[in-house]
UniProtKB/TrEMBL annotation:
SUPFAM superfamilies: OsmC-like. It comes from Fimbriiglobus ruber. It comes from the Bacteria. This is Organic hydroperoxide resistance protein. GO terms for biological process: response to oxidative stress. Belongs to the OsmC/Ohr family.
Amino acid sequence: MGLAAAKMKVSIPADRAIDAEVDLCLTDGAYFIQARLNVSLPGLSREVAQALVDAAHQTCPYSKVTRGNIHVVISLVQA
């Protein structure tokens, strides 16, 4: 997120928070993982915060590796 914020010339709030929930699921005898990320960026407008979250998701090495392999839902939570 820091790299995306620097490119956008946005300061990341000191009280930011990311809550991750990961589920191990079973369907038709096969296991799979799914994740939910709830991101809080207090003090940023919803538009700027969403753009930052989207940019970070596109450039994050972990997101790149898991894209298409793990269902991920990223939600912006406003404080």
